[in-house]
TrEMBL record, chains A, B:
PANTHER family: NICOTINAMIDE-NUCLEOTIDE AMIDOHYDROLASE PNCC, NMN AMIDOHYDROLASE-LIKE PROTEIN YFAY. SMART domains: MoCF_biosynth. This is Competence/damage-inducible protein A. It comes from Acetobacter conturbans. SUPFAM superfamilies: Molybdenum cofactor biosynthesis proteins. Pfam families: FLAD1_M, MoCF_biosynth. Residues 6-166 form the MoaB/Mog domain.
Length: 251, 251
């Protein structure tokens, strides 16, 4: 069995619509590559009880949990404190991270707001990264990362060697212009029944030039099954009279 | 109190990273406008027990719940059946919707796959829309919509008059180039303490020209409080020596 992953997006700015999320897809692809696929995402507000409750629920249910957001220097950055409470440990200054921040900003400019960024639950390991001096951290099976996409991405690359990994998820895609889902629904279900370990999906698309069609995607970890399913998907498209084309449609 | 909303995104294609979500932000903004703000989003896979359990949990916790995805004609489109089970009612053919689909496709082409798109839980009301013949539906406090963004948006406009509404959430934003969060953290917290009913956030940004800064956003339903907080936010930026500019930064 592949290890399972879940993501908690902590941020009023996503729930209010101010910000378009740019982290979910990056993590979904990265976790698929290391064979620890994303099984659930929750987007929750900056409310203590909600954050603590969600972390407790998710860390028990999934092999590893990621959080994004809420680790900056302002009053609404309460993620570290909530993770500490979820693990039942005190929040304290991480001396090594504090020293790095102090060197970076200078002693005069290492204000109490900036000290917040070196506060971690006792026992946490910092997630250093190339983009930001302020670190994320890992504790138990929970990995706490920044919400700013460039920093989050650097933190994920940094923590990646420490993650639980499995067999990479790969996919085979065929698409056809002019195809309708209803024309292939029964045949596609038969392929799904033959390969229950794969995840088969059909996705209607509309290209920028206005032409419509459907993409059929098989995902999984067993390459032999993927190749078998892909051949059948190609055939079932051809049986409708439309032309199967390998890969995703153009935009 | 404003009514609360939650969104369940049903779709393996978001969790696998195949598809960039384009629905969350649209609904977040739309629900803010009608004063029924989005309080939680869950992205879950196409697994029966997960969908049923999540619907049951969310419809008890929030005033209204939206789902997107899983209402097409293929084997992985199981949302309607799961909603029926969550409400403890049978899934059955909605005669009026079936008649519309039959007229549209013609009797010969109204295949069993297409009939799936007229299946609804008993007692559901269809959400007709201008883009797609296949409807969504509402039952109890749950509104079931398509995953394809153009269809979802049309369905939301169609169901909007039937939704629970409250005082619209509005916002005031000031930003400044060269500003650091740590420089305003304490002053911003003081504004938050003075207006506990508002949601105050600080968001670092980096423009396309490489210049960095911070945007400060006050959100809420009380316009007098918003105006008061906005004036104080303007002042606290000016006190750092940077120039406060009203509104969001340019890209």
């Amino acid at each position: 069995m592949s290890p399972t992953s879940a993501l908690i997006v902590i941020g009023n700015e996503i729930l209010s619509g101010r910000t378009q999320d740019a982290n979910i897809r990056f993590l979904a692809l990265g976790l698929g590559e290391i064979g620890a696929p994303l099984k659930e995402v929750r987007i929750i507000p900056d409310i203590r009880e909600t954050i603590i409750g969600t972390i407790n629920e998710m860390k028990a249910r999934y092999d590893q949990v990621f959080t994004t957001g809420g680790i900056g220097p302002t009053h609404d950055d309460i993620t570290a404190s909530c993770v500490a409470e979820a693990f039942g440990v005190p929040l304290e200054l991480h001396e090594e991270s504090a020293a790095l921040l102090k060197t970076h900003y200078g002693t005069d400019q290492f204000t109490s707001a900036r000290q917040r960024m070196a506060m971690m639950p006792r026992g946490a390991m910092p997630i250093t990264n190339a983009v930001s001096i302020a670190p994320g951290f890992s504790i138990g099976n929970v990995h706490v990362m920044a919400g700013v996409p460039s920093i989050m991405q650097a933190m994920f690359q940094s923590v990646r060697p420490n993650l639980k990994q499995g067999t990479p998820v790969t996919s085979r895609t065929w698409h056809a212009l002019g195809l309708y889902e209803s024309a292939i629904a029964a045949a596609l279900e038969a392929v799904q029944d033959r390969y229950p370990d794969l995840d088969l999906g059909s996705y209607p698309f509309r290209r920028e030039d206005g032409r419509r069609g459907v993409a059929l995607v098989a995902k999984g970890t067993n390459v032999e099954h993927l190749d078998g399913a892909a051949a059948q998907i190609r055939s079932l498209i051809a049986a409708t009279g439309e032309t199967p084309v390998e890969g995703e449609p153009k935009p």
